[in-house]
Design brief:
Elements lengths: L3 E7 L2 E7 L2 E6 L4 E5 L5 E6 L4 E6 L5 E5 L4 E5 L5 E6 L8 E6 L5 E5 L13 E6 L5 E8 L2 E7 L4 E6 L4 E7 L5 E9 L9 E3 L5 E5 L4 E5 L5 E6 L3 E8 L5 E7 L4 H7 L2 E7 L7
Antiparallel strand pairs: 1-24, 2-3, 3-4, 4-5, 6-7, 7-8, 8-9, 10-11, 11-12, 12-13, 14-15, 15-16, 16-17, 18-19, 19-20, 20-21, 22-23, 23-24
């Protein structure tokens, strides 16, 4: 499958989410959040000076935005008012990154663990849970760059993409929001690494692999059932569109902030798929 271009001209896109009939994305190196319509038109929603990443929504409709460098979750009300939802810097050694917000309003937040772009050696890190009241809690440790996440099995399982672990790792979520029964959900094929991921209605997970320039659909156990070749770094995926059967893939030519801002070549690509988004 070869994707088409929906829109381009961004610095570096992350955190795609289909919500209220449009695609929401963070331009991490452009320091802003956008929403994009199916005709390719887009609108800036808000500026995030400390670099945005993961996005999600609380049950009351408020939007949560990861602010990476100051390690905060921002909260945007439907009227546009923005406040601080949580500051997780006490638990997180480096930049925070992607996030999934579940139907109960809990935000599960990953982080870099080490600054690979500044030459730091690989180091494991923690996963943080932020509850709807803004309180934050340790959720798991010994993760190698916890990145994209999905929640499956009717809210009972969290799957985390460990980018530098080259695998998807699953946890059970109990009634007290405690993670247990850690296990490998899927190993990546040779040379591939998982970045942003999304879940479909049959429990398959689409994984963006920047190192191999593709989006891969996995089923539990590690079988690859489908692939989309982008020819560029595939950064993150989301399912959406009118029937939920459009796979959006965010792509880039670089991860360097300067190179990305100079080139302004990041884009949203899309392709139809057979299995729609998980409800």
């Amino acid at each position: 499958m070869t994707p088409k271009i929906l829109c381009d001209g961004f610095a570096f896109l992350e955190g795609p989410r289909w919500h209220d009939g449009v695609l929401w994305v963070s331009d991490m190196h452009g320091d802003a959040v956008f929403k994009i319509s199916l005709d390719g038109s887009y609108e800036k929603v808000m500026d995030v000076p400390e670099q945005p990443s993961g996005l999600g929504w609380l049950p009351n409709g408020d939007m949560l935005i990861v602010s990476m460098l100051d390690k905060k979750l921002l909260r945007r009300k439907p009227d546009g008012k923005v406040s601080e939802h949580a500051d997780v810097s006490a638990l997180v050694p480096r930049r925070i990154n992607d996030m999934i917000v579940d139907t109960l309003g809990r935000a599960w937040v990953g982080n870099f663990g080490f600054l690979f772009d500044e030459g730091e050696p690989p180091a494991s890190t923690v996963l943080v849970r932020v509850d709807p009241d803004g309180s934050y809690h340790f959720a798991a440790d010994n993760l190698m760059f916890p990145n994209g996440m999905v929640i499956t099995d009717n809210g009972k399982t969290l799957v985390v993409a460990e980018t530098f672990g080259r695998k998807l790792t699953a946890f059970d979520i109990d009634e007290d929001s405690i993670l247990s029964n850690r296990r490998t959900w899927a190993e990546m094929p040779e040379s591939a690494v998982p970045d942003g991921i999304c879940l479909d209605a049959e429990g398959g997970i689409w994984v963006a692999s920047p190192t191999t320039g593709e989006a891969l659909r996995f089923v539990e156990g590690g079988e690859v059932t489908n692939s989309v070749q982008t020819g560029r770094m595939a950064i993150a995926t989301a399912l959406g569109g009118e029937d939920g059967k459009t796979l959006f893939v965010l792509t880039s030519e670089s991860t360097s902030r300067k190179e990305c801002c100079d080139a302004a070549s990041a884009r949203v690509e899309y392709v139809p798929v057979d299995v729609g988004a998980a409800v």
